[in-house]
Amino acid sequence: MAKPAKSKDKHIETLPASWYHDPAVHERERERIFASEWLLYGHEAIVPEPGSYLAQTIAGWPLLVIRDREGALRAFHNVCRHRASMVVAEGAGKAPALRCMYHGWVYDTDGRLKKAPDFGGDEAALCANTSLFPVHLQTWNGFIFICMAQKPPSFMESLGDLPIAAGNIDFTGFSYHSSAKHAIKCNWKVYAENYAEGYHIPAVHPGLNREVDFASYRVATGSRIARHLSEPRAESRDSAVYGGLWVWLWPYAALNVYKDGMNLELMVPTGPETVELQYHFLFRDLAREKTNREAMDMSTAVTAEDIKICEIVQKNLRAGVYKTGVLSPRHEGGVALFQDMVRKAVG
Asked: Domains of the chain, with CATH numbers?
């Protein structure tokens, strides 16, 4: 007797809708993902000289990466040991020392307290025993990673298949151009999932759809990454902005590398139903402003389209009708990988 035929494709169920607005889930993600994993933070081109720093808040934690007097990179919580003010304002900058925004305590570039103006008492003893809270830091191919865990996991294992996907790309040949932020009214997972698939391109991104051959479009998954693969249309092969490497790295980062530039993209949770998209634009030749601006303008246009649809999705996830859905076995392998990693991390 012939055996019953088995279903070729078993549909994968999505995460519950409540996981996209429940404050308790958000707190577990902060602790079990963002406070525990190695996080892609920036690029060495943003902090090229002693005293150069990049201050960002990641999932509620104010952080600071600075190049010290000897040229080494160091990472700290951007939290003054006096009464918890930020030491420096967010963004990229340069300073010979770090002066707290609140009461003027001064820290050296190695994090040690140098001066507590008019504090009284034994200031020398206070300085000798006080420094900024340190954060673990590693670099790979010009990229800066940080980890807030007391005992970080293996750094190289955290990169997964990124070194394979990146191949022989020289990421150290870039110069920093500028940064941009987009405040979005959706859970960070909504935006990460949107990045992890190209299924929505024909409906959401008409300009991008004119450049890429959607029939060849696919997302290849690997260890901790999802990589977009597609051929440009024949008529736009020479002028297409989108080419090169487009890869998501667990948990919240993406490397968007085109012909002469790169957008380092961070999808930073700011609350249960809000995310801040942080862009760092780098180019091989800053003098080619027209070409560089075209790439940035294309990124801005696509981002605006993504923001619109992601905010619609968030509204409906919150409404209470939708509980779970199913993922396309053809197009949404990257989403399935991401959601599986979230499940394992959050429990």
From this structure: 9-35+161-347 (3.90.380.10), 38-152 (2.102.10.10)
